[in-house]
Amino acid sequence: MPPKASKSKEAAPERPILGRFSSHLKIGIVGLPNVGKSILFNTLTKLSIPAENFPFCTIEPNEARINIPDKRFDWLCQLYKPKSEVAAYLEIHDIAGLVRGAHEGQGLGNNFLSHIRAVDGIFHVLRAFEDPEIIHVDDSVDPVRDLETISEELRLKDIEFVDRRLEDLEKSMKRSNDKQLKIEHELCEKVKAWLKDGKDVRLGDWKAADVEILNTFQLLTAKPVVYLVNMNERDYQRKKNKFLPKIHAWVQNHGGETIIPSAVFLEKNLVDMPEDEAAKYCEENKVQSAIPKIIKTGFAAINLIYFFTAGPDEVKCWQIRRQTKAPQAAGAIHSDFEKGFICAEVMKFEDLKELGSEAAVKAAGKYRQEGKTYVVQDGDIIFFKFNVSGGGKK
Ligand code: GDP
């Protein structure tokens, strides 16, 4: 019988995460026109997992699914030599360019903003390359101004949403004394003041109960952002770009999220080369593709993690949202696993790697049995035990 995990191993309850509760989360590419979004998206499409790997769902043309590079997964596949290998992936949506005034319907404004509402996080692409041939919608290259433009559009759209919600709530409050209406109204007033102050919702210190209400709104500025700075290859190679320090300073003052320097032209050229040629090019020019970092950072930014199931039949990554408890994680595999959940037998990847086999992990007393309240951690290797109504057991 595996040892029971001690109570102290169970993570303290964290504040609920802003955003949708789902394991099917996606990130959208956002930015002004002519910053390099399409080239980036086309490059990602070429790196996509083939559609036939998703037989039961349609993959839209504006959607790319890219495997998450992970040495742990590669190692597990080496160990088990399984018949089937299924890595985790990030789903990326191409959201066409946003312009100033979008919240009032400028350009294809409101359409774009509704596409942003449908994703769970944002890759914000910034233009930090100069080229007189490529026009900028606002005439000059100035990524900090562009950051202001886009973040303001998103905030204005959120204010519009909150205003509408306030109106609805006020109507309802005339008809009912429901305390919940008042609580929501107060929160909306707070959120509106916060936004009007030029601050994004995701940067607020909201209480758990507030987060639950906020999650019913899907506000645009509540979504996590990763900044992708598109520069020319020379700047990327020498890790210097005249706009980068200013972008860095701006981001530090606005939440300090991750900034990833990239050169989309380089990425495009690399995917168009045979693999060995691309590797040779990178070595000779002392550059590295930014795509693996972009994919991993995007996945973590939208609060996804994965656990492994591993054996000779299959090594598979199961994506779940951070903070998911064992029964719901089991439900990612099959709803019966969740309904009839008995326990999760968990190995830490590091233990398996160090000790070499499942038997050695068991012998070392590191194969643990976890119950319903266990919060699944990234990289756990799990075997679920469950009852089905017929009394079967896996
Ligand atoms: P989008 O409107 O943001 O989707 O931008 P695109 O990906 O269509 O790129 C807009 C234009 O900028 C295209 O003509 C690209 O060739 C050009 N472009 C993108 N990245 C770079 C770059 O790093 N340097 C230069 N000189 N041009 C670039």
Automatic annotation (TrEMBL):
Full protein name:
Obg-like ATPase 1
UniProt feature coiled coil, ranges: 159-186
Assembly description: Monomer. Interacts with GAP1.
Main function? Hydrolyzes ATP, and can also hydrolyze GTP with lower efficiency. Has lower affinity for GTP. Exhibits GTPase activity. Exhibits similar binding affinities and hydrolytic activities toward both GTP and ATP. Binds to the 26 S ribosomal RNA in vitro, but not to the 5.8 S or 18 S rRNA. Confers sensitivity to salinity stress by suppressing the anti-oxidation enzymatic activities and increasing lipid peroxidation thus leading to the accumulation of reactive oxygen species (ROS).
InterPro entries for this protein: ATPase_YchF/OLA1 (IPR004396), Beta-grasp_dom_sf (IPR012675), G_OBG (IPR031167), GTP-bd (IPR006073), P-loop_NTPase (IPR027417), TGS (IPR004095), TGS-like (IPR012676), TGS-like_dom_sf (IPR023192)
Task: State the family it belongs to.
Answer: Belongs to the TRAFAC class OBG-HflX-like GTPase superfamily. OBG GTPase family. YchF/OLA1 subfamily.
Main subcellular location: cytoplasm
Q: Which residues bind ATP?
A: M231
